[in-house]
UniProtKB/TrEMBL annotation:
Matching InterPro entries: NT_sf, PolA_pol_head_dom, PolyA_RNA-bd
Biased composition (Low complexity): 1-19
GO MF term list: ATP:3'-cytidine-cytidine-tRNA adenylyltransferase activity; CC tRNA cytidylyltransferase activity; nucleotide binding; RNA binding
Gene3D superfamilies recorded: Beta Polymerase, domain 2 (3.30.460.10), cca-adding enzyme, domain 2 (1.10.3090.10)
A Pfam family the protein falls into: PolyA_pol_RNAbd
This protein's GO CC annotations: mitochondrion
UniProt domain tRNA nucleotidyltransferase/poly(A) polymerase RNA and SrmB- binding: residue ranges: 246-290
Species name: Blyttiomyces helicus
Keywords tagged on the record: Nucleotide-binding, RNA-binding, Transferase
Protein name (Swiss-Prot/TrEMBL): Poly A polymerase head domain-containing protein
Length: 477
């Protein structure tokens, strides 16, 4: 098992880590005027609580998690989560509303996000829009897990306990609204943010056995920030009992949400590379109906790398001129989604026939492309996603055969056959995505050409000519 620091891709320039801070500057946060006003309002509310309810313990407020991380690396963030030490979120939000009314400020409405473990909501959260900011209020907490569920028992906790329950160290930082200082109770988050390192607050095995969804979150943040993942994390994620816990505890909707974010994100190729490395492909993508089927998960990574390489080539419009370049974000996502389920190309699952009454002829068994089941049932993405990805995989081989036959034929293009194929490809389920199917057929052929070679690069002009000459018989691009 090799270190998962992002190796420079031959098909695209290596990207600089977004963590350039130095020890004397990284701990400083520059607030906007709106943020300063907002935080002053919250602190004033704690003073109002102290004066009107002296029987209550003092209230300390901190911003937690993503806002702190993003501000430290110079990115603006609207994700303001207020962590409260001695009061529940809804109680503080109501106190805030009371204080604002008492000083003649505009009233606010307060909503409650109720418990919803399927969406990672393990306790109620109060939400209010204050001065154009949508703010979540929740108390600092500690969590206790059992072996059957990723949904913990929650209680009030200290800042350290709250930090320890988080997925990775760079998401476990706080910003104290009273001292206006960053607080790193683990003593690791700021350093990890500086160097671009992904670590878990607790020992990785314990972190993942408690909540196996954190494996995908670790990968998502690593790919988002081009950060290196600690080797201990990769080794823990590959343990069979962690994979069993993932299948037992995590809903497919949550898996699909995380996967979709990575397919749309900065580096879907690295995502597929990591899950191949840790042996997690089948856990994430394989439908339960075909659990005994063995597929080569590296196909997904290789196809995705070819997609990345093609999309970085400036002359791509000369290959498939029917596509508008640069590719729309949704088309880019569809290409990576299709690459992700490409190991299931050609696999069909036959649905068991239901019993029929006597004297009634048995119905024809229903046939389902496994790639479609992966998208619709395993990832719980939309039917349109499932139809499109499955349709592209179905038609790509026929497109490749037609192009190859045309390039080698003296008679030229068989327009009748081409018209029939285009009409079939452009019909449901692909509709306007037929051109993406043409592009993916090229991805597929280039993948066969390179095999499992990680050094895929077709960005150079001479290299592209060579590839097209060998794949589609073209040397005139």
């Amino acid at each position: 098992m090799h270190n998962s620091s992002p190796a420079p891709f031959a098909s695209a320039p290596a990207q600089r880590s977004p963590f350039p801070g130095q020890p004397n500057t990284l701990q400083e946060i520059c607030l906007t005027q709106q943020e300063d006003d907002l935080f002053n309002l919250f602190v004033a509310t704690t003073e109002h609580i102290r004066q009107t309810r002296p029987d209550l313990p003092p209230v300390i407020l901190r911003v937690a998690g993503g806002w702190v991380r993003d501000k430290l690396i110079g990115k603006e963030s609207e994700d303001v989560d207020i962590a409260i030490d001695t009061m529940k979120g809804e109680a503080f939000a109501q106190a805030l509303k009371t204080y604002m009314e008492s000083v003649g400020m505009a009233t606010i409405s307060i909503g409650t996000i109720h418990l919803n473990p399927d969406k990672s909501k393990h306790l109620e959260t109060a939400v209010a829009k204050v001065n154009e900011h949508t703010v979540d209020f929740v108390h600092l907490r500690t969590e206790t897990y059992n072996e059957d569920s990723r949904n913990p028992e929650v209680d009030f906790g200290t800042p350290m306990e709250d930090a320890l329950r988080r997925d990775i160290t760079i998401n476990a930082l706080f910003y104290n609204l009273h001292t206006r200082q960053v607080e790193d109770f683990l003593g690791k988050g700021i350093d990890d943010l500086r160097v671009g390192r992904i670590r878990t607050p607790l020992e990785p095995y314990q972190t993942f056995i408690d909540d196996p969804l954190r494996i995908l979150r670790v990968i998502r943040f690593a790919t988002r920030f081009a950060a290196a993942i600690d080797q201990e994390i990769l080794e823990a994620a590959g343990q069979p009992d962690i994979q069993d816990a993932f299948l037992k505890k995590i809903t497919r909707e949550r898996v699909g949400t995380e996967v979709d974010k990575m397919l749309k994100g900065r580096d879907p190729v690295r995502f597929l590379s990591i899950i191949d490395e840790i042996g997690f492909y089948n856990v994430v993508f394989r439908p339960p109906q075909v659990e005994d089927v063995v597929v080569d998960s590296r196909i997904a990574f290789i196809r995705a790398r070819v997609v990345e390489s093609l999309l970085t080539y400036e002359g791509l419009h000369r290959i498939v001129p029917s596509i508008v370049y640069p590719l729309a974000a949704e088309d880019r996502r569809l290409l990576y989604l299709t690459a992700a389920v490409a190991p299931f190309e050609g696999l069909i699952w036959t649905e068991p026939s239901k019993p029929t009454p006597k004297n009634v002829p048995p119905r024809e068994p229903k046939l389902h492309p496994v790639a479609r089941l992966s998208v619709s049932q395993t990832l719980k993405l939309t039917n349109q996603d499932a139809d499109s990805a499955s349709g592209i995989l179905t038609f790509a081989p026929e497109i490749s055969r037609m192009v190859l036959e045309h390039s080698q034929s003296k008679e030229g293009l068989d327009r009748t056959r081409l018209g029939l194929l285009v009409r079939e490809v452009a019909a449901k389920p692909l509709f306007a995505k037929w051109a993406i199917a043409v592009l993916f057929s090229l991805v597929r052929e280039i993948s066969f050409l390179f095999g499992h070679d990680e050094a895929i690069s077709i960005s150079g002009e001479w290299n592209l000519r060579l590839v097209l000459a060998r794949v589609w018989g073209r040397a005139d691009i």
